[in-house]
Amino acid sequence: MSRAVEAPHAPALPGTLSEALRAELIAFRRDLHMHPELGNQEFRTTAAIKDRLEQAGLRPRALATGTGLVCDIGSDCGPADGAGGAAGGRLAFRADIDALPIPDTKTVDYASTIPGRAHACGHDVHTTVVLGTGLVLAELAREGRLPRPVRLLFQPAEEVLPGGAAEAVACGVLDGVGQILAVHCDPRVDAGRIGLRTGAITSACDRLEITLEGPGGHTARPHLTTDMVTAAARVAVDVPALLGRRIDARAGLAVTWGRLETGHACNVIPQRAVLSGTVRCLDLAAWRQAPDLVHAAIDEVATLYGAKSQIDYVRGVPPVVNEPGSVQLLTDAMAARRGAEAVEDTEQSLGGEDFSWYLEHVPGAMARLGVRPPGELSSLDLHRGDFDVDEYAITAGVELFTAAALL
Q: What average pLDDT does range 313-318 have in this prediction?
C-alpha cells in the first residue's frame, strides 16, 4: 500500500525525505517482502542492506552470528553514561530483519516468493526505516550537521527464543552506545502517528515444558498406580491457580497451556504425560522470580499426586521497559516533525519482543509505528498471512529517527 501524504506541520529540522528517496525505500521494502528469510538465515537480506549502505559511503560490519550488521555514522564520542539519558555514547537505532514461517496470502505484486515464509510482523518495514535513517544521517554527517554519532543495528532472529538480541549484545553491538531506540509496526495506529508508553510496553514471554512420570497400570486399580491423567490435569489447573496466590496479581504472571498429551487406551493408566505452554509476565521484577516460583508450584502439585516431574523452562525475553528520557526524546522528535497530536498513548502488549535485552544494558525506548491507513475502521493483526502496511509509515519512521538524532 502506498499513498502520497504530507506531514501536517512543516518540519522544524533538516532531514526530510525527498520523493526519490521515498520511492527507493518503498521499493527496498517490497523487495525484502518478496524474499523473506527466517531467523539466522537472513543472508540475502543482510547482503542487500550492506550493499546500499556501502553505496552511501558507509562501512557496515557483519555480526559474528553470520547474519545482521552494525554501521556507525559520525565520529566516536566519550563513553556511554549508562544511567538513563546518555551524556556520551552513540545513539543506536535497531531493526530486526527476520521473517515468520507462515505463508503469505495477500494478492499483491510484492507478495512473498518463498513458500511458507512471510514478513507478517513488519520487520521489513523496521529494516527499511533504519536503512533510510542511515542514508539521511550519512548525508547530514558529510555536511557537518550531525550533532551526535549514531549506530545502525540490523539484528537477526528476533522471532527465535530467546531472541537474536541476546547474541547481538554478546557480540558487542552496544559497545560505546549510550541510548537505543526502535519502532514496532502497530496496525491499530494510523500511519503518520506513533504510540508511546513510559515503562513496560510489552510482556515477558518464556516457554515451559513439563514431563510427568510414574508407574501406570489398569484403570481398575488406580490406587496401585500414579494416576497420570489426574496428575496432569491437576498440574494444568492448579499450577496457574497457585501462582496467582504467590505473586502480586498486578504483575500479570500467567501460565497458559497449549498442549497436554497422555495415554493411548481407555483402560490403561499411562506412565507419562507432557504439558507445554507459555509463561507471560507484565512486570520485570516478577519475571525474574518466575522460574523459581513456577518450578516450586509444579513440584508441589506433582508430588501431591505421586508423579515425578522434569521441567524444561526456557527463558524467552523480559518485558520491554521504556526509559522516561528516551520516551521524551521520541515524543519531542515526532512533535518536531508532525506536531504533538501525532503521538498517542498506547497500552502494554502481552506479546514479547527481544529489544528488551538491549534495555538490560542501556537506556532506550520502543515506539509503536502506525501502519493502518487513516480512515480504516478495521486492521489486520500481526502474525497473519494477509498482514500489510500503509507504506507512508516508512516516511514517518525515518523522519522520527532522524529528528531524534538531531535534537
A: 93
Alpha carbons 189 and 195: distance in angstroms, whole number: 7
DSSP 346: -
What CA–CA distances, in Å, run from 294 to 21, 305, 314?
Answer: 51, 17, 12
Q: For the residues 65-76, what does the mean pLDDT come to?
A: 92
3-class SS of residue 247: coil
Report pLDDT for 78. Answer: 47
- pLDDT(4) > 50: no
Non-local CB neighbours of 375 within 8 Å, separated by 6+ positions = none
Tally of domains in the chain:
2
Residue 221: CB atoms within 10 A of its CB come to 9
DSSP state of 36: -
Neighbour count for residue 48 (Cβ, 10 Å):
18
Name the percent of the chain in helix, strand, coil, to the closest 5: 35, 25, 45
Report the pLDDT value the prediction gives residue 380, as an integer from 0 to 100: 76
Q: How far apart are CA 404 and CA 91, in angstroms?
A: 9
The reply to whether 11 falls in a domain is: no
CB atoms under 10 Å from CB of 209, counted, come to 14
DSSP string, 95-131: EE---BSS-----STT--SSTT-B--SSHHHHHHHHH
pLDDT at 322 exceeding the cut of 90: yes
The one-letter amino acid code at 210 reads I
Range of the structural domain that residue 224 is part of: 204-317
150 domain residue, yes or no: yes
pTM over the 0.85 mark: yes
Alpha carbon distance 365, 373 (integer Å): 25
User: How open is the CA angle 120-16-21, to the nearest 5 degrees?
Assistant: 55
Read off the CATH number of the domain in which 327 is found: 3.40.630.10
Which three cell numbers, joined as nine digits, stand for 252? Answer: 500479570
CA-based end-to-end distance of the chain: 31
- The three cell numbers locating residue 289: 522470580
Question: Are 358 and 260 in the same domain?
Answer: no
